[in-house]
Write a structure and sequence with these properties.
The chain is an alpha/beta fold. It is built from five helices and five strands. Helix 1 packs antiparallel against helix 2. The mean pLDDT is about 90. It has a single domain, classed as Mannitol-specific EII, Chain A, CATH 3.40.930.10. A hairpin with a 1-residue loop joins strand 2 and strand 3. The protein has a five-stranded mixed beta sheet, with helices on both faces. Helix content is about 40%, strand content about 25%. The longest helix is centred in the N-terminal third of the chain and has 14 residues. The radius of gyration is 14 Å and the shape is globular.
Length: about 140
Amino acid sequence: MEILSKDNVQILEEAKDWKEAIRICIKPLERHGFVEERYKEEIISNIESLGPYIVIGPYIALPHARPEQGVIKSQISITLFKKSIYFGKDEIPAKLFVSLAAKDNESHLDALANITEVLQNEEVVKEILKSKDVDTLYQYFH
């Protein structure tokens, strides 16, 4: 998947809350020039307005915002937190954050289809959540 660079994959222990988790998982995209600094705050604002729309399955979050909310170039980052991050009043847990920066409404669709295929397999997701190093985590999506 060309839209995912190994430099954008990270494994961390925890974040103090979901807002910090969003800022952490978007940081590689920001650091490498794929998104503007405001992109992470736009995602946070969207979640505050719409609820935890980014949690797409058990322990899986797909942080993203609209292209005009700060995307420079399409790219994905993957962050695995060892401890669950909880969203909303229902305390929805997430550990795997597949952050998407899409420059337009189409260029990222192949990558998103590949990610969806990986994440639909519950056994694979269980193994992904146990990843101990970046190389292993990266290989699941590459």
